[in-house]
Structures are given as structure tokens and as C-alpha cells.
Amino acid sequence: MADGPHLATGGEATPSAGPAAARVAIIDSDSGFVRVLSKRIGAVGWRAQVLGSAPPPEELRAMRQHAIVIDVAMLGSEAWSYLGRICSISASQAVVVCTAPTSVAQRVRGMRLGADDWVTKPCHPEEVLARVEAALRARQAGAAVSEPPQAVVAGELEIRPDMFEAVVGGRALGLTRREFELIQLLSASEGRVIPRERIYERVWGYAMAHGDRSVDVFVRKLRKKLEAASPGWRYVHTHFGVGYRFDAQEMDTTTAAADEGEPPEASASLP
Amino acid sequence: MPMARLSLVPKDREFFNLFDEAGTNILHAAQLLGRLIKQWPDAGGLGREILICEQEGDRITHDIIHRLNSTSVTPIDREDIHALASALDDIVDYTEEAADFMGLYNIEAPMEQALQLTGVLEDACRNIAQALSRLRGFQELNHYFVEVNRLENEGDRITREALASLFRGGIDPMIVIKWKDIFERLEQAIDACEHVANILEGIVVKHT
To answer: How does strand A243-250 pair with strand A233-239?
Structure first.
């Protein structure tokens, strides 16, 4: 459980450049390895789909995975043709081969068929994860990632990723880095409830410890600043026992009191 | 020996009054800690108030030991007075240490389990404070000790579960290090309450 790939260290780097919850297919018959890797993938908020045998490429395409981790050894003589076909499923899908020691020629052939990376077993799941993440970054480099993030406008609020700040009427709210990452994450999924565990994973870069109130504390801080700057609006809404939802709503007197709740207390009911 | 007996009465009162004070002090410290963790990180001057409680605890312990050394006849066995005073002091020391760690470790937000533990600590301290205030009669104190023992078991359970949840995979190792320490301090404070209850129980048995 060393540093997760989402770890936002010191003053640099946002979490993963990959999709919010990347779907990763693991095509491998080594049950021990698969278990460890899928657990690690789950721990960073991604979804792992374990496939003990190689499905037809068309089926794999229908699964719309973001990345595929494959042990080509299990395909025998079909390995190269299969690898070639899955590498051409989609331009944004990353393929990382993770297999037993091979020759240089085999690795070169695999990469030229379109694999993004090649990891030799035995390997650490963290490294595989990091390579998948790097491959996703590279696949997306031509598209969204290379573009500067766009400002989001909601109600009176403007969220400016270029400044790491939120602005109301030309005045900055003075958000800390964590508060900014929080509002950026919430506003990116406007209208949808994001569970607290998921918020923690994305903003803090780790799994949330059971009972940890960090998300609630930071939402409280964020709300305080939002209310001071934009008192006629409500932006962050509490869903008790679940998490938070970003939705810019102009207050009228009837809804104001109802929504202005304390952070959810659901985790108070420990077993 | 009527003269000697008369001169003992104030000394008796002094010891009981001091233990009563100590009881009030541990309860106050536990309540402050509960508020501090609940309101964290906006706990204002509560840490400072807990530190004052800890110093007050030291002062009371010192007074008790001082009186013990300057009194030839005591209302309770000397070793029991000594053990009780130092066990009461332990409660405030651990309480203060837990509060101190919140700031020292730069804790961002409270944990539910820490709130539960401070609740248990507060209840245990309340029972001890009530037992201490009724110590003079040495009567009808057993239910306090039973309750403190029950609370200590409850504290153990919460601490074990809290520690187990910290060691789930993927959690920031810094969070693990910090909260493991704080949970342990809170548990030690609750254990110290049980120790006090055991000493008190022994005192009561000798006097009934």
C-alpha cells in the first residue's frame, strides 16, 4: 500500500490523468496475481474485470474497457494475432502485456503490434497499475489531457483550473489546494452524488479510513467560503449517509433551511 | 484519646476533598477532549484548557502526596492513597496527550471512532467522579466500578475495531501512524479509569 497512483504529492500534479473510474480488464489465468492486482485496482477507485480466458475481441470491444492487462502466454499460438486485434479495438484503449520472461524479439513484436507497455512477471501490482495509468495518459495525450482545463461556471461561481481558484464576481474565494480539488471534482460531476469514499480517493489519493471525517470537514470549509462569497446560492448539497452533490441553486427562503444540513453522520453508526 | 481523634477530622476531609477535586478535574478534562475532537479542526483554545486541567491534576496529586507525607494517620491506607492519586493523574495525562497529538500530528479532521472513545472516556470519568465524591462513606459504590469495567471493555472493542480499520489496504500510511497513536492514548486513558476503579474497589473492601 505504498503511494497510490493518485497521490497528489507536495505542490505538483493532479490525480490520475486517466478516466475518473477507469475500467480495466485483466486477462490472465494466474489467480493469485489477478487477485492482488484487481484488489489494488479497486483500492484506487477503478474497476477491474477479471477474465480467466481470453474473450473474442468483439466481445471485449463491447465491454468498453479503458485498459486491458493481458498475459499473452495463455493464448499459445494465437497470442500475436489476438494481441494485434485487441490493440486495434479503440484509439483510447490501452493495452499492457504482463507475462513471464520473454525474449527481446518477442517484446519488440508485441510493442509493434500496438501494446502500450510490457511488464515481465514477477512484478509488483503497483507497477502494473502505474504502467496502465501511464498508458492511459499517453493514449489520451492527443485529446482532452493536452488541452488546458476549461473553467466551469455555475451560478455566480466560476471555477478556474488555470488559477486553482474559484471566483465570484471577479473576487477569488481564497481556496486551499484541497478545497479547490474538492470543488473541481464535485463540479465535474454536476448534479450527481459522489460518495464520500470516492471523493476522498480522488482528492486525497488514498482509500478512506472507516470513520474519517476529512471530506465532511473540507466540505464545511468550502461551504463557508462559498456562502461568504455567494450568499444567495447553494452549491454543495449533502446526501445523508452517501456523499455530496454539486448543483448551483439560487436560494429561495423555503429551500434554504432544508438543505443547509450538517455533514452526513452516517458513519457514526459503526458496527 | 478524644484530643487525637478531633485533630484527625480535618485531615480526613482534606484527603476526601482532594480526591473529589481530582474527580471533577478528570471529568472536566474528558469533556473538553470530547468537544475538542468533535469540533476539530476548529477547536479554538480547548487544547490549552485541557493543558490547564493536566497542570491542575499535577497540583492535586502533589497536594495529596504532600499531605500524605506530613500526616501520620490517614483515613485510607497510605499506599492506597498514593496509588489512587497517581492513577487519577494518569487519566488526565493520557487525556492531555491525546489532545496534544491532534495538534502535533496536524490532524485534518476527526474520526468517528475517536469521538466514540471520548464518549466512553467521559462516561468512565463521570462514574469515577461520582464514586470519589461519595468515597467518605465507603458505601454503595460498587455499581460505579461495574460500570467503569463495562466501559473499559467497550473502549477496548472500539479501539480494536478502529485499529483494524486503519490497517485495511490503501489507506495513507500517515493517517495510520497518527491515528494509531491517538486511538492508543484514548484507550490508555480509559484503561487508567479502570485502574482507578480497581483501586477504589480495593479501598471499599477494606472499609466494609
So the answer is: antiparallel
Q: A81-111, pLDDT tens digit by residue?
A: 999 888 887 777 899 999 999 999 899 999 9
A240 within 8 A of A266, measured Cβ to Cβ: yes
The C-alpha cell of A81 is what? Answer: 494475432
* Average pLDDT of the segment spanning B104-129: 97
Residue A88, pLDDT score: 83
Residue B25 lies in a domain: yes
Q: Is A218–B109 a contact, with Cβ atoms under 8 angstroms apart?
A: yes
Q: Does A211 contact B168 at a Cβ distance shorter than 8 Å?
A: no
Which structural domain, as residue segments, surrounds residue B179? Answer: 9-206
Could you tell me the three cell numbers for A12? Answer: 505538483
Total domains, chain B: 1
Query: Looking at CA atoms only, how far is residue A199 from chain B in angstroms?
Result: 14
- The pTM assigned to this predicted structure is 0.67
Q: How many CB pairs (< 8 A) connect A and B?
A: 69
Q: Which residues of A touch B (CB under 8 A)?
A: 1, 4, 39-40, 43-44, 204-218, 267-268, 270-271
Interface predicted TM-score (ipTM) over 0.90: no
All residues at 6 or more sequence positions from B30 whose CB lies less than 8 Å from its CB, including other chains: B91, B95, B118, B121, B122, B124, B125, B189
